[in-house]
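Colleagues,

For the teaching module next term, I've prepared a clean inverse folding example: a structure given as C-alpha cells, and then the sequence designed for it. I'd like students to try predicting residues themselves before seeing the answer, so please don't circulate the second half yet.
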C-alpha cells in the first residue's frame, strides 16, 4: 500500500514539475514576445519622434 502511495506521490511530483516548467516556459515566451513588440514599437515610434525639427 505504501509503495503504491509513494508511486502516486512521485508521479504527482513529476507532473507538478512538468506543469511548473510549462508555466515558466509559457510565461517566458509571453515576456519575450512582449519585450520584442515593445522594442519594435519604441523603434518605430522613435522614427516619428526622433526628429526635433
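(Answer key — instructors only)
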Amino acid at each position: 500500500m505504501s509503495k503504491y502511495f509513494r508511486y502516486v506521490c512521485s508521479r504527482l511530483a513529476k507532473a507538478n514539475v512538468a506543469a511548473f516548467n510549462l508555466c515558466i516556459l509559457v510565461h517566458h515566451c509571453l515576456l519575450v514576445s512582449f519585450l520584442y513588440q515593445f522594442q519594435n514599437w519604441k523603434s518605430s515610434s522613435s522614427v516619428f519622434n526622433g526628429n526635433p525639427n
